[in-house]
Specification:
The protein is mainly α. It has one domain. The protein contains five helices and no strands. Helix 1 packs parallel to helix 3 and helix 3 packs parallel to helix 5. It is globular, with a radius of gyration of 22 Å.
Length: 165
């Protein structure tokens, strides 16, 4: 019995793209993920603002913000880009902590704002300090681990509160 093999045409969609032809480089990926983090943060903060300003005004503010972003195409300076992912994680930690505090009935807006700003600044400073000492990736990993543990702890508390589990 003879086995014949058919020639399969080369699928051009699976061939690697040259580095020069790639649409997203590392800075575009960082900007995209930062935008995603900021978007989630805006939604969360919007949830706090809706009772204060009303649904119509909050929706109008979101539309105005989107239009301004599309018109002006804001970009993040390259000097700040290495610190943004860590700052977003720190901000998310503050947001999840705020949600947990709301559900526990102990939310204080001043504490939330101070926590949010201080988390972002301290996390960015730690990464900056690590870069200056030549151990930026190790300190970044440490910040991500610590804040990740806090985020998942807060999410677990939120889940227990919402689902009574």
């Amino acid at each position: 019995m003879t086995i014949t093999t058919a020639t399969v045409p080369l699928n051009q969609a699976l061939t690697p793209v040259d580095t020069a032809d790639r649409v997203f480089r590392w800075n575009e990926h960082a900007s995209l993920w930062f935008s995603l983090g900021v978007g989630l943060l805006v939604i969360q903060i919007g949830a706090y603002l809706v009772p204060a300003v009303g649904t119509r005004d909050a929706a109008l503010a979101i539309v105005v913000g989107i239009v301004l972003g599309l018109v002006f195409h804001p970009s993040v300076p390259e000097v700040i880009q290495p610190y943004l992912p860590i700052a977003v994680i720190a901000a998310l930690d503050a947001v999840f902590g705020g949600v947990r505090a709301v559900l526990d009935g102990i939310f204080v807006d001043k504490v939330f704002v101070v926590s949010f700003l201080s988390n972002v600044l301290v996390a960015a400073f730690i990464v900056f300090l690590g870069d200056q000492l030549g151990v930026g990736s190790q300190l970044s990993t440490g910040v991500v681990v610590v804040l990740g543990i806090r985020i998942f702890s807060n999410v677990a508390a939120i889940r227990r509160h919402l689902f009574k589990a």
